[in-house]
Amino acid sequence: MEFTKLKFSIADGIARIVLADPTHHNAVDKRWTEEFRAIAVACEIETELRCVVLSAEGRQFSVGGNLREFVAERARVDSHVRGMTVDFHAAILVLNRLSAPLVVAVNGMAAGGGFSLVCMSDLAIASRSARFNFAYTRSGLTPDGGATYFLPRLIGLQRAFDLLATNPTLTADEAQRLGIVARVVDDADFDAEVEKVVRGLAALPAGAGGRLKQLIRAGVENSLPSQLDLEGRSIATQAKHPETMATLEAFLAKGRA
Asked: Would the pTM count as exceeding 0.85?
């Protein structure tokens, strides 16, 4: 597929997805969702993937759904929007189950589906000037992109309802205090910090970051006995990986030096 709304590349075990339609504030339209799904599948079949980073060109991360397209498709808006969600949600399911952590780098405004992408990340980093607003109900819509799944797990049911129903605009610091983003970085240092984090995750021994992601996500749903069993099997499997053993040997050698 030719990408016109997004950019995609893989190098050194890092998949880079870039929202690349700054003229339209990286709005989510039908073409966008089709490209996003194709990129997610490409990530899934990449056997050496260590990390995925999602970022955006321009002054906005994403303003969410392209409402002009909704109105233009008024005669069949229900089937049009449903088709968009099929592709959007298929991509989210793939990225959620990847054995590689997903870092979302948020500059400018993240609204609607753009905000949903932040919530489904494994680690969100925001520039100091970033802003967050769901805006669905203000437009007479209901959330998509997993917002009603991921957000309550991050901040609780009542806070999630408040944000989704009343649509306050959050600063980056407010989003961090709520637990929606992990780090807030001054704008001047933003790109460098994102790259440092992504490179650090990619440099972990093979499987370590991906297994951690899967353990944390499973832990939200599992009972304690099930999660302890999963942890036990995971650390045993990871311990025998050649890269893990080499890391352990190097650590012990450094201690003897």
From this structure: yes
